Amino acid sequence: MKRSAFSINAIRAAALVLAISSLAGCESLNDWFSADRVDYKATGSAPPLKVPSDLNEAKVQPQYTAPPVSAALGGAPARNVTAAGNSSEGVPNAQDALGMHIERDGDRRWLVVDGRTPDQLWPQLEDFWKANGFVLKSDVPATGIMTTDWAENRANIPDDWFRRTIGHVIDFAYSSGTRDSFRTLVERGPNGTTDISITHSALEEVLTGQEKDSSRWVERPRNPVLEAVFLSKLMEQFGLTEAQSKELLANAKPASAPATIDMSGGATTLALADQFDVAWLRVGLALDRTNFTVDNRDREKGIYYVRYADSAQELKGDGLFGKLFYSSSPKQKSGKEFLVNVHANGTGTDVSVVDASGQVDTSSEAKNIISLLHAQLN
């Protein structure tokens, strides 16, 4: 027994030293666009891609249906040569000489690709994330939502003598102590365009306990710069040069007017001056900036199905301490589901939280969601 206890304590002590070592180092956001600043490695295999048991499968809409696999053998649309000589995925026009541009709303940016539909771009988005070291956790063209599993940016780990020796032998023992996930929303835009947004989520493993012999995952703020990095990388995959993609990011076109809040009649709703297409996209982006995760959405009904997401629970058992001391168990979704309704009102668009019968939800939780959306949309 004594020998066993000593062995466990020795392992824990060694793990603590490794964890502290892995958290060393510093970084500058000005260096994010450097080629060696993004080097992701997925934490594991994603579960089978299926509709969660507590949700009804969304009706497959043609604009989100990905083409068959054989399309890669010749069915994909041909690229277009721009005046600058690029072989661009987008269709150049008088407003967009490169066939695409960036729009922004606060610190949020998204890519608008001209002359392409979501189904034409979906297979390329799948390839894009896989080529950058990610496993796709959610890949459902019918909803226009693509989410990566949690992954570690190995570029955050100092390339010191320990990593070059022990780190290559026992790879999991040398960790940055951080995980990142990215959600891609793909929307059909007006006039035959496709809007693509990328949202970053982040967790960090922190030591806990008096002896610092255990750890837990805590949320970190999303990094708009890292989102911009991947938008830039995506534009390069779509045919632009690095300089062109950075120029489009710098010259992002501003979005529409802010939202106003209405608390009359005991219900809390939002009013946007935008027409439905634009408002639908803005609300989806705003939800991604909160702790509410979009599990499903029905554009025809104007409904986002959302729940409060405790991201840290998804990685319980992961990380250095988790791999050494915790057994794996199925990760269950938690949190009550809410229905966020986006509907045209003739002159603009209204946003409200509704119940299953379509009536406005007047609960404190619903009012809180509207308040969070109001803050994100202004």
Automatic annotation (TrEMBL):
Locate the transmembrane regions by residue number: none
Pfam families, from UniProt? Lipoprotein_18 (PF06804)
Keyword field: Signal
Q: Entry's InterPro entries?
A: BamC_C (IPR042268), NlpB/DapX (IPR010653)
Signal peptide stretch = 1-24
Protein's recorded name: Outer membrane protein assembly factor BamC
Q: Which organism is it from?
A: Trinickia dinghuensis
